[in-house]
Please model this.
Amino acid sequence: MMAAKLYGPEEVLKLAAKPSPAPRNYKTLAQRLSSPGEKVKVVAFGGSVTAGYGLNDRRQNWAQQLTNWLAAAFPEAQLRLSNLARDGTTIAMAESCWYQYTPQDADLILIDFNLNSCSYSTCRSVVAPQIAAYENLIRRLISQAPKAALLSFEAFAFGSYNVNVAGGGTATMPMPYYNSGEDMHAMVAARYGVPLVSARDALYDLLWQEGAVQLNAALGVSRKSLLQDSKHPTNLGSRLYGRGLAAFAVRQLLSKELQGMAAGRGDQAAGSPLLQALQQQQQGYELPAAISPLAAQYADLPTFCAEGEAFQSHVITGENNTVDGWEWLESSFSRGCDLGNCRVVGYSSAIEGKPLQIQINTAKPAAAAAAAAAADLASSRRRRSTARSPIRLNLENSTEEQKSGITSVQVTAHPECTLQVTAAGSGWVQLLGVAVVPFFSNVALTSVDSTAMEMGL
Model:
């Protein structure tokens, strides 16, 4: 493994690695990678950085670069990457829907949801919806693929601001170091045995003008050769992210496990009794209590999700399977993307107030939640929802083609629950799918939790 070449000097790469004291399932991953003929499955989630936005070949993204390095480090294993990233998306979509696409026998899962989900202090709290979604995604992935190792990659927006200075004039200042969800992600990741890789910590002092000399000295390249803009890496930048920062962190983790195997420790955990107990917990399938009180309100149970062509069957259509004011089409920015989950197709409308009705069975997730825990769902009363009395949900139109997100409404258990969606405002909106997520309203909260949720701390 050590013969597989990394990209970048070790003094830079090591700054990015934030290993967990008890990394989940890395012993299993090391065993599978070192077994000749094993088919090792890698799965990646993220936004445009992981989807390879702007690259001549999207398959040169950082997740593929890491997979290529693993293939070089373990040539007798058969590695395959399933890249489920999608441009311009937030973690809520992966947490409520796309996690289901993960094979149950996945070996390594990569997560990259810092840029699109966390900026301008939106992820500074444990009760921030984006942090709760990050924790829920990890919990759902562990349940979906219990033997998989996980790795969180934290990209960063290396932008700049022109600011006014005392006495007149302006100065250029770098993006604030704290403008990231990385620090909250690190706390959550550590709880679940997920190592973290920080592009910010490795490159922050190198990617602005004052660091240009050090960058050239360290890597022999310029900022322009690494970044297309403030967020998206070039081919070379993707190589640095995947075959450099991420590969170095993974090499550290696997080296420790392989050394333990070579020393004959086998399945016995090394270190103090406390660390052994923690490692055994992380290697197990049981989930600890959620950190975020907001995350604790969501049941650790499968969600229902329908998007793409599967979504069409839940839309109530008229003659010729059409919906007045809505058009089924593919978004232009996803055309030409051949990754597994990057195609964006759905119902689009630019006409304000035109309704689109969706009929789904909300009883399945609700019934599963009720059966699995002695708790009521968010609403204890069943409401019959029909096409005549739909639950209404407005979507704000946007003129920004790549602006995306999730909006939600609370529903009850019913086999034919109908949602009526209308476009509000000027511009256009595209509806890509629908998900139903089990939710508990009576989760026990401490006074600290209640205060945090009331104040948004």
Remarks:
- The CA atoms of residues 167 and 173 lie 17 Å apart.
- Residues 235-262 form the longest helix (28 residues).
